[in-house]
Design a protein that fits this description.
The protein is an alpha+beta fold. The chain contains four helices and six strands, in the order αββββαββαα. It has a six-stranded antiparallel beta sheet, covered by helices on one side. It comes from Streptomyces prunicolor.
């Protein structure tokens, strides 16, 4: 997955936006103001921080040792840093991004979740 493909995929979700609250180099993808992905698109290797269910986070870190690690500068129980440099299947990276988005949406107030479902 290229940096452009990662960016486009993050922005493909309903109400997703890209913001730069930290530095002009750090893309923060949010849904209704809540972060679901954080990356430096020019990073080498390309990585992305993603929210994850704590049990899944541990399993993924064990299964993909060195490619999925505890979230850099994040709550390590709920966030993973995922290498997006071709060693992991693109399908898996897409699933992890989607899971992160879904976890954040699930934590939104009901009224905001319902607003996302409207066309």
């Amino acid at each position: 997955m290229t940096p452009g493909e990662l960016r486009d995929f993050c922005l493909s979700f309903n109400a997703a936006v890209e913001d730069f609250p930290f530095t002009p180099d750090t893309s923060v993808f949010k849904v209704l103001g809540k972060l679901f992905a954080l990356t430096r698109l020019d990073g080498s290797p390309l990585t992305v921080n993603l929210k994850c269910d704590p049990e899944d986070a541990i399993r993924l870190r064990e299964e993909y040792e060195g490619l999925i690690i505890p979230g850099y500068h994040m709550n390590k129980r709920h966030w993973n840093t995922v290498r997006v440099d071709g060693e992991l299947p693109d399908r898996l990276v897409r699933e992890l991004v989607e899971d992160s988005y879904d976890l954040v949406v699930a934590g939104l107030p009901r009224a905001e979740r319902l607003r996302l479902d409207r066309p």
